[in-house]
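Note to self: the last two entries modelled the partners one at a time, which told us nothing about the interface. This time every component goes in together.
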Amino acid sequence: MFRRRRLLSELDADIREHIARETEDNIARGLAPEEARRRAFLKFGNPAQIKEDTRSVWTFVWLEQLMQDIRFAARMLRKSPGFTAVAILTLALGIGSTTGIFSVVNAVLIHSLPFREPARLVALFQAPDKMKGLIGWAADGPDILDWQREARSFSQVAASLMDAANITGGSVPQHVNGQKVTANYFDLLGVQAAIGRTFSGDESSAQSAVILSYSLWRTSFGGQDVLGHTIALDGKPFTVIGIMPAVYHDPRTWGNPRSEYWILLPQSQLAQHRGEHMYASFARLAPGVTLSQAQQELNLIAARDAKAFPNTNDKMGALASPLGQVNLQTFEEGDFRSIEPAILLLQLAAGFLLLIACANVANLMLSHSLARYREFAVRLAIGAGRMRIIRQLLTESILLSLLSGAAGVVLAFWCVKVLLALAPKGYLPPTANIGIDTQVLAFTVVVAALTGILAGLLPAVRASRRNLNDDLKAAASASGHSPSRLRAQRFAVILELAATFILLAGGGLMVRSLASLLDVNPGFNPRNFFTAGMSLPAEQYAKPEQIQRFFLAVQQRVAALPGIDAVSFSSAPEFDVTNSSNVIIENRSSQSDGTREIYPQICYVTPNFYRAAGIPILEGRDFNFSDVTTDAKVAIVSHAFAEHFWPRQDALGKRLHFGGSKDWLQVIGIVGDVHQEGLAAASLPEVYFPLTRELADGQNTMNILARSSLPPALLAREISDQVSAVDAGIPLSEARTGSQILEDWSGYMRYRATLLASFAAMALLIAAIGLFGTISYATAQRTHELGLRMALGAQRGDLFRLIILQGAKLVSIGLLIGIVAGLSLARGMATLVYGITPFDPLTFIGVAILLALVALAACYVPASRAMKVDPMVALRYE
Amino acid sequence: MSTKEEKRRIELLQGTLDLLILRTLVRGPAHGYAIAKAIEFKSDEVLQVEQGSLYPALHRLIKRGWIFAEVGASENNRRAKFYRLTPKGRKQLALETSKWDQLAHAIARILRPAQQESDS
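The predicted structure of the combined assembly is written out below.
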């Protein structure tokens, strides 16, 4: 379009020429040169307008004007850096945190099942008749075989068993967790190996084959080609046939640790040990079959099995739960709970924060555009179109929103990372695609843009009205300033304050719950406490004497080290519940208790356990080495156990019997309770047995407990050295300190508290800024009035009080609404709090006071400015 | 700052102005000022149009390809931009003129039916 450019560039000259000629003509007609020129201009018209009209013939008018608007908008934003910075920051906070939260939530709810058609997958459990909920017992091998054979509702049924082994053949021997899975496992899930292959459904090709996880392959084998190589698991040789993709993870049912390897679980093994309930089981619904149909069929099979095997299957039902829902359960405080309420809470909090941010920005824009009323009036007076002004203001708003959106995206990335990093281990279901969800981002940016537009629209429309004169006067005068605009601002601030209160209350409840939780005595002494696991390979340690000798030897060696106060071994890792059994009390059956089946926890320990763990011995004594070596028939019970089985009696001297030993055992000590299932759950009754030769049978995995003030890393190394001295091939695993254990036990609550408190803090900041801005503006508008008051005798203190009162009014209304709304929402948090009710008055009152103080602090500056008003200046202020 | 009515008037005028320019150029190329004078003269100053609105009209006609601009020398040997009809412009003029005639005829018949009869 060179022609266009040339013509337009010549336009100036053309016009000048034209006017020059007309001027000449006029002079020729006898007019004075000045007059001639003036008449010529009059006749021609407004050159600027003409030029613009001519230009607009050639261009897409709207595009050029848009570019102009954008450039102008950018300039305006740059001219008020304070406003721009605060607006962008506020909006970016809202957009970033909301996008981050919703991205994580989406990933957790939607993307955390990397399987084919995950909606058709179910987890199968066995459920003793009175059990409710989604998660049941582990399935029995023979029952799984029954399901495979008979259940027509499932196209496939697979099983898996938790396994662990010392792996050698890589860079260093490592103790890792893995799974034994049936040959159809990977087929059922619909996943494939990244390198090599998985089990094909045919057992013969899977014998002595192992599939490695991606992370194990990279860390232990350096990512080199290992297909076809042989590695040893607990001394037994296996051939590597495949590596799983990095994003793969097994379906999560009981919060199993991440698997690093998979080996075959043969059908023949499933057929054994009816009644032992060891396996996780999964099934894929056959096409066209509904969940309820499948459940009904399972019930029939269960009933049939109950009749056929009354010893093991009596009153044992079966349960099919959708994998998607099972995925959201975590084991918290003794029970499986869905993380959905917590997720919902976080989403709500994020939504509130966005609301507050948008209200704040709307407020800011209202104040900001007010200051430019003059500018609009002048522009209208010289001929700008009304639409033009509106369009320009909208462009500013949208530009602001887009800039905030960009900042928000950056914040969102960071937010997602933080959300995942802070989450306690195993709390969130493992997911592959953690990134920014573009849908969510688009939604939030649209919301923010809409807010910007709406907030900018109101003043824009009013600013472009024709009869501006009144508005001009009103804008500057004392009392007549646009009441509706101020009302809109006040409304926004009240909304912000109310929403902030709700967030603060939520955060406060979580923080207090956390404090209550941490107040609970865990039962052991976490200070200077260290624990680690060790696993003896079954081949070399087949005899109980070997096992007993190993652990006692290691214990004696470590006890001899300087800096060790006490050391012992226990079968329970981190006091976790792993073993339970039928316990028969002399002169009583443990199942005579009708309300709840008590399966006491069982723990095998070596001497000095209670000193090492820091568990108080309430009565009687600890095990000693002679108990262990002479196979003494003794036991120690926990306080809860004694209370349950011998209420109001002395448990010392009583006798009990359990499946692991053929003799009656005598109680020689009563010890304090440990919260095995978490700080908020009740302590389960527990009985401790000494690691005698009889009981050491099969106890290949034990955990060392050490009480020492040495730093954990040093301690780990020293213990490792001593273990190697006894047997070189035994690595330590899962080394943890007492404080780490406590963190794990309170992790979920700390997560919630941290997130909610962070949201609340951000909201408080934003709301304070909003309040500050509104009060400042309102005060500035009242300058004339304030001057008048002073002239009429008001003291400076009176003015100060006046402004503070104005702020206090807003704050009280906001608080009121917030309290009412908060109380009605609090009910939903009942499952999430600990140690307090969701209506906890201390929290509500405390938070209200905090908000009031912060809000009043925000009003302080404008109020003190009001005090410094010079009445002479104020009265003249127009 | 034009109101709605002024805008409508201008649009009507645009069409008329375009036609007048074409008509003026039929006799030969002319520069902008000359065209303005010619229109003023022809219409007996009935059409009160700002001279300046000539320029957007000229650019419009150039954009449509009905006239084109070239640089030449004017009467007193001044460099001036001359506008000239293109063949397309000539055709357009003929078309528009006939349309105007038809319109004027139709209006005349409505307004003065008696005279019509007496004419025919």
